[in-house]
Amino acid sequence: MSLIRLAYASEATFAAKPLEKGVEPHVARILLVSRRNNGKVGLVGGLYYGDNRFFQYLEGEEEAVRDTYQRILQDPRHRNVRTLIEEPVAERSFTNWSMKYVPASADVQAFLQKHHLPEFDPMAFDSTQCEEMIDLIRRSSQDQKLVNYDEPVRIATPTPQTLSPGLKAGLVVAAVGLVVALAVSATLL
Questions:
Q1: Range 69-72 contact pairs with CB under 8 angstroms and sequence separation of 24 or more
Q2: Residue 42 and residue 9 share a domain
Protein backbone atom coordinates (compact mmCIF):
# COMPACT_ATOMS: atom_id res chain seq x y z
CA MET A 1 0.00 0.00 0.00
CA SER A 2 1.06 3.57 -0.53
CA LEU A 3 1.37 6.36 2.02
CA ILE A 4 -0.62 9.55 1.60
CA ARG A 5 -1.10 12.76 3.48
CA LEU A 6 -4.30 14.71 3.84
CA ALA A 7 -5.03 18.07 5.44
CA TYR A 8 -8.51 19.46 5.85
CA ALA A 9 -10.29 22.38 7.45
CA SER A 10 -13.75 22.42 8.98
CA GLU A 11 -16.01 24.46 11.20
CA ALA A 12 -17.11 23.12 14.56
CA THR A 13 -20.85 22.65 15.00
CA PHE A 14 -20.63 23.00 18.77
CA ALA A 15 -20.36 26.11 20.88
CA ALA A 16 -16.98 26.15 22.60
CA LYS A 17 -17.03 25.44 26.34
CA PRO A 18 -14.49 26.47 28.98
CA LEU A 19 -11.13 24.73 28.61
CA GLU A 20 -10.16 21.70 30.68
CA LYS A 21 -6.39 21.12 30.85
CA GLY A 22 -5.98 23.48 27.88
CA VAL A 23 -8.40 21.57 25.65
CA GLU A 24 -12.00 22.41 24.75
CA PRO A 25 -14.08 19.42 26.04
CA HIS A 26 -15.57 18.51 22.63
CA VAL A 27 -12.09 18.61 21.13
CA ALA A 28 -10.77 16.46 23.98
CA ARG A 29 -13.33 13.77 23.10
CA ILE A 30 -12.32 13.96 19.42
CA LEU A 31 -8.68 13.52 20.46
CA LEU A 32 -9.43 10.50 22.64
CA VAL A 33 -11.23 8.67 19.85
CA SER A 34 -8.70 9.77 17.22
CA ARG A 35 -5.76 8.50 19.23
CA ARG A 36 -7.40 5.18 19.90
CA ASN A 37 -8.52 4.64 16.30
CA ASN A 38 -5.44 6.08 14.59
CA GLY A 39 -3.08 3.97 16.65
CA LYS A 40 -4.90 0.82 15.54
CA VAL A 41 -4.47 1.59 11.82
CA GLY A 42 -1.08 3.30 11.93
CA LEU A 43 -2.22 6.86 11.20
CA VAL A 44 -0.17 9.81 12.41
CA GLY A 45 -0.87 13.51 12.35
CA GLY A 46 -1.86 16.64 14.17
CA LEU A 47 -4.86 18.76 15.04
CA TYR A 48 -5.31 22.45 15.75
CA TYR A 49 -8.59 23.96 16.95
CA GLY A 50 -9.10 27.71 17.18
CA ASP A 51 -11.82 30.28 16.52
CA ASN A 52 -14.30 27.38 16.32
CA ARG A 53 -12.43 25.89 13.34
CA PHE A 54 -10.32 22.78 12.85
CA PHE A 55 -7.14 22.18 10.89
CA GLN A 56 -6.14 18.54 10.84
CA TYR A 57 -3.31 16.72 9.14
CA LEU A 58 -3.21 12.95 8.60
CA GLU A 59 -0.52 10.63 7.23
CA GLY A 60 -0.68 6.90 6.72
CA GLU A 61 -1.66 4.08 4.45
CA GLU A 62 -4.03 5.38 1.79
CA GLU A 63 -6.96 3.18 2.79
CA ALA A 64 -6.69 4.10 6.48
CA VAL A 65 -6.46 7.84 5.71
CA ARG A 66 -9.45 7.71 3.36
CA ASP A 67 -11.55 5.65 5.81
CA THR A 68 -10.75 8.08 8.61
CA TYR A 69 -11.56 11.06 6.44
CA GLN A 70 -14.92 9.52 5.50
CA ARG A 71 -15.75 9.20 9.21
CA ILE A 72 -14.79 12.85 9.72
CA LEU A 73 -17.04 13.89 6.83
CA GLN A 74 -19.93 12.10 8.57
CA ASP A 75 -19.10 13.43 12.05
CA PRO A 76 -21.84 15.85 13.20
CA ARG A 77 -19.24 17.95 15.06
CA HIS A 78 -17.80 19.11 11.71
CA ARG A 79 -19.44 21.14 8.95
CA ASN A 80 -18.16 22.74 5.77
CA VAL A 81 -15.29 20.27 5.59
CA ARG A 82 -12.78 21.23 2.91
CA THR A 83 -9.82 19.17 1.70
CA LEU A 84 -6.72 21.36 1.59
CA ILE A 85 -4.02 18.81 0.68
CA GLU A 86 -4.26 15.23 -0.52
CA GLU A 87 -1.21 13.60 -2.05
CA PRO A 88 1.23 10.69 -1.80
CA VAL A 89 4.24 10.87 0.55
CA ALA A 90 7.43 8.85 0.62
CA GLU A 91 7.65 8.63 4.41
CA ARG A 92 5.89 9.74 7.58
CA SER A 93 6.83 13.01 9.23
CA PHE A 94 4.82 12.53 12.47
CA THR A 95 6.26 9.14 13.36
CA ASN A 96 5.51 9.21 17.10
CA TRP A 97 2.03 10.70 17.11
CA SER A 98 -1.29 8.97 16.61
CA MET A 99 -2.83 12.44 16.90
CA LYS A 100 -0.94 15.44 18.21
CA TYR A 101 -2.92 18.38 19.53
CA VAL A 102 -1.45 21.85 19.56
CA PRO A 103 -3.32 24.29 21.79
CA ALA A 104 -3.70 27.97 21.06
CA SER A 105 -0.17 29.24 21.34
CA ALA A 106 2.12 32.14 20.64
CA ASP A 107 3.34 30.23 17.56
CA VAL A 108 -0.13 30.22 16.02
CA GLN A 109 -0.64 33.88 16.91
CA ALA A 110 2.68 34.72 15.22
CA PHE A 111 1.59 32.71 12.16
CA LEU A 112 -1.68 34.68 11.98
CA GLN A 113 0.14 38.00 12.36
CA LYS A 114 2.73 37.08 9.74
CA HIS A 115 -0.04 36.45 7.21
CA HIS A 116 -2.19 39.40 8.37
CA LEU A 117 -5.03 37.08 9.33
CA PRO A 118 -7.48 38.51 11.89
CA GLU A 119 -8.57 35.03 13.03
CA PHE A 120 -7.81 31.36 12.50
CA ASP A 121 -9.57 30.41 9.25
CA PRO A 122 -7.77 27.48 7.63
CA MET A 123 -10.33 27.28 4.81
CA ALA A 124 -8.78 30.47 3.46
CA PHE A 125 -5.19 29.14 3.66
CA ASP A 126 -3.19 28.95 0.45
CA SER A 127 -0.82 26.00 -0.10
CA THR A 128 2.12 27.82 1.52
CA GLN A 129 0.09 28.61 4.62
CA CYS A 130 -1.09 24.98 4.83
CA GLU A 131 2.52 23.78 4.71
CA GLU A 132 3.51 26.33 7.37
CA MET A 133 0.66 25.19 9.61
CA ILE A 134 1.67 21.54 9.19
CA ASP A 135 5.25 22.46 10.03
CA LEU A 136 4.09 24.47 13.05
CA ILE A 137 2.21 21.42 14.35
CA ARG A 138 5.17 19.15 13.63
CA ARG A 139 7.69 21.49 15.35
CA SER A 140 5.56 22.00 18.42
CA SER A 141 6.84 18.76 19.95
CA GLN A 142 10.38 20.09 19.83
CA ASP A 143 9.28 23.25 21.60
CA GLN A 144 7.26 21.38 24.25
CA LYS A 145 4.25 23.60 23.47
CA LEU A 146 1.72 20.88 22.92
CA VAL A 147 -0.92 18.92 24.68
CA ASN A 148 -0.63 15.18 24.20
CA TYR A 149 -2.98 13.09 26.28
CA ASP A 150 -2.49 9.46 25.36
CA GLU A 151 -4.54 8.55 28.40
CA PRO A 152 -8.21 9.54 28.76
CA VAL A 153 -8.58 13.23 29.51
CA ARG A 154 -9.64 13.75 33.10
CA ILE A 155 -10.10 16.86 35.13
CA ALA A 156 -6.85 17.35 36.98
CA THR A 157 -7.13 16.69 40.69
CA PRO A 158 -4.13 16.78 42.96
CA THR A 159 -2.95 13.37 44.09
CA PRO A 160 -2.41 13.41 47.84
CA GLN A 161 1.17 12.65 48.79
CA THR A 162 1.18 10.46 51.87
CA LEU A 163 4.97 10.20 52.05
CA SER A 164 7.49 12.79 51.00
CA PRO A 165 10.44 11.62 48.89
CA GLY A 166 12.78 12.19 51.87
CA LEU A 167 10.57 10.14 54.18
CA LYS A 168 10.40 7.34 51.61
CA ALA A 169 14.20 7.27 51.35
CA GLY A 170 14.50 7.24 55.13
CA LEU A 171 12.11 4.30 55.40
CA VAL A 172 14.06 2.36 52.78
CA VAL A 173 17.33 2.96 54.66
CA ALA A 174 15.68 1.93 57.95
CA ALA A 175 14.27 -1.23 56.35
CA VAL A 176 17.66 -2.18 54.95
CA GLY A 177 19.23 -1.52 58.36
CA LEU A 178 16.60 -3.68 60.05
CA VAL A 179 17.19 -6.56 57.62
CA VAL A 180 20.96 -6.32 58.20
CA ALA A 181 20.46 -6.22 61.99
CA LEU A 182 18.18 -9.27 61.86
CA ALA A 183 20.69 -11.13 59.69
CA VAL A 184 23.57 -10.31 62.06
CA SER A 185 21.55 -11.27 65.16
CA ALA A 186 20.49 -14.54 63.54
CA THR A 187 24.13 -15.48 62.97
CA LEU A 188 25.04 -14.66 66.59
CA LEU A 189 22.37 -16.90 68.08
A1: 69/6, 69/8, 72/8, 72/10
A2: yes
Instruction: Output the CA–CA distances (angstroms, integers) from residue 27 to 86, 118, 122, 155, 162, in the order listed.
Output: 23, 22, 17, 14, 34
Same domain, 120 and 86: yes
Same domain for 138 and 170, yes or no, is no
- Choice among 37-41, 59-63, 67-71, 157-161 with the minimum mean pLDDT: 157-161
Based on the fold, state whether residues 138 and 168 are members of the same structural domain: no
Other Cβ atoms closer than 10 A to 109 = 12
Helix boundaries (H) for the chain:
25-41, 62-74, 106-114, 127-143, 165-188
